[in-house]
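Exam revision sheet. Question 4 asks you to relate a sequence to its structure. Input first:
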Amino acid sequence: MSEDATSLPETTPLLWLLAWLVAALAAWVAMRSMREARRARGAGAAAHVVAGSLALGSGIWAAMVIGISSQAWAFPIGFRQPLALGAWALALLLSAPAVTWMGVRPRRRVAFGCGLLLALAALAVQALLLQSMGFDPGLHWRSPGLAMAPLTTALGSTAALGIAFIGPGRSGRSGGSGIWRKLWRLLAGVLFGLALVLGQDMLMEGGRISAQVASAHHAELPALLLSVAATLLVLPLLGLLAIDQHWRRHVAPGQAPQGLMSVLAALAQGSSRKRRRPGNRL
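Answer key, structure tokens:
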């Protein structure tokens, strides 16, 4: 079969836009958690870090899954279950340090380092998902795509963090004010999402996806099924976190964490106690 017969000249626009929306919303929720983590103390701050990591990691993973499904494949595709779920865990693991560092010390150098880390997370998650699809004849990475994909994601994520925490979206006298500050923060999330999906397209091109003729795991975990599951799981999760953030920030400031955040706070407090327990014994 020729390369032209299996080329991917187009994507499904609605799915591509959905991937962008999920990534943008995840970044927006995560950046709100980073700001709240600076204001909170103890288990409350840790809960915000956990919430931000959960939002950002899940959003990156879901956007990658939906983005893969948005391609105009000429054959059925699917994933190997352990690797697909492992990619989710990897996204959570790599997102946690970025959320923690930006929540504790949002400085230029920190934003640059976190941007690079998030680019690495997106690259690793995407590569693992593609590897889990069992392509025939197999992926053959080309240097232009491998170079441009992380560069695009790193520039976009670094710029987004800079806008939200250092530039006009920053809280305080040196930042924007009122509605403009909120709009700049929203723009930061949109920019992060765009950089993520554009980097994904470049990475797929670098892996010579157009030369593939089959996916060995199309019947194990169909891509469309996983995309629907990711959308139905991640979007409500992001919505609940955003509503909880708004409630505690504007409706009931100063109150103890409620709902989902109370669970995250309890988990964070329990983890903190386990870490302190050996040092407290004589």
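Marking note for examiners. The two ends are 72 Å apart (CA to CA).
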